[in-house]
Specification:
This protein is of the alpha+beta class. Helix content is 16%, strand content 27%. The radius of gyration is 21 Å and the shape is elongated.
């Protein structure tokens, strides 16, 4: 079951049903291994989407969830977790009255297939993602100005952690800490 690509869920019930079905495969395998005479103490499987379904199986399951720590728009159906990893950008150009260019692009995000959204900027959309820039569009003329900052909420961000030397921890618009990323440059 671990680390498979899953569809977006429309409700908690469908999420739990799929998680239980996936865990059932692991449980059946555990039983077969034990019937062959090999003891199994724990099943290690699962993901963020299935963390609560593991308890309902009655088995000892170590959930390998990791996305919950950062989250992303891909998990927006799970209201118990919030997106904590956001990418800060700055408007560097306004070539048209309702178009702005930001200084952050695909290289700052880890999921190239889906665009990020913007935090607290209703009416502003991501028009295009380039390698090192983003094109933003708004219906309001001259709303976005050079020097304005914005926060991108990534679609999926787990794979990005090791691309940075440091993370800046911010709470209530105040820097709370600067964290070194010791695994910088490593990948799987």
């Amino acid at each position: 079951m671990s680390h498979q690509h899953l569809p977006e869920f429309t409700n908690n019930e469908s999420r739990i049903l799929l998680a239980k079905a996936c865990y059932d495969v692991c449980i059946d395998l555990k039983i077969a291994i034990e019937e062959a005479g090999i003891p199994v103490k724990m099943i290690s499987s699962g993901e963020t989407f299935s963390y609560d379904a593991a308890v309902e199986t009655g088995e000892a399951i170590e959930v390998e969830g990791g996305s919950y720590a950062l989250m992303g728009n891909t998990y927006n159906y799970m209201s118990e977790f919030k997106i904590s990893n956001k990418v800060l950008g700055t408007i560097i150009s306004t070539p048209k009255p309702n178009i702005a260019i930001g200084n952050v692009g695909k290289r700052a995000l880890s999921w190239p297939g889906e665009n990020p959204t913007l935090e607290d900027m209703p009416g502003v959309t991501v028009e295009k993602m380039l390698d090192d820039h983003i094109v933003l569009k708004t219906g309001e003329l001259n709303r976005l100005k050079i020097g304005n900052t914005f926060l991108l909420l990534p679609f999926y961000q787990d794979m990005l952690i090791n691309r940075w030397d440091k993370y800046i921890a911010v709470r209530s618009n105040l820097v709370q800490g600067v964290w070194d990323i010791p695994a910088r440059g490593c990948y799987h």
